[in-house]
Amino acid sequence: MKITILYDNEAARTNLQADWGFACLVEMDGRTLLFDTGAQGDLLRRNMDMLGVDAGRIPEVFISHNHWDHVGGLTEILRLNPDATVYVPHSCPGPGEAKPAVSIDGPYELSEKVFSTGELQDIEQSLVVKTAGGLVVVCGCAHPGVEAILQAASRFGKVSALIGGLHGFREIELLTGLNLICPCHCTQEKSAILTRFPQTSVSGGAGKILEFQ
Known about the structure:
Structural class: alpha/beta
């Protein structure tokens, strides 16, 4: 399994542009899924082009929540691929440019190894991917709280990795025992997390690639 960060507040590669927002590409077992779409479609597409990602050939888009910095690029992605399946939390309106979106309320199975936590606290869903080393959880901003997200994800197995925006999360000890932590986007305590878990935490940024067995 491979996760490539496409859009983030920082850039891990000099030829990519940073901007407030988040998006990443999730690839496993021949399946490709775009998690969130950043704030600006043209910037997202430019970063994708630089990374060799064909925006017009992404069959699935998973939207964590209906905030501008996570859905801003969706119109552009659907312009390039109007047949893409879009998964949105129940409170998020489906994009008018596409075929009817899949509206997710409770825990949801996208496939045998890919799940949604379901919409938590009426605002946000997180993606859960089952790997040989445990569950990889990808979140947009963690508005419902990291503890709630990890608890919801754990219904599918043991969580081993957490990637994405963690917003104002400060209960850092909750991350003890994870094999990988990649705080991105809106995480206010990035430095504290990287300092507390030097062996298991890594910086994000557009262009960062994370691989799992």
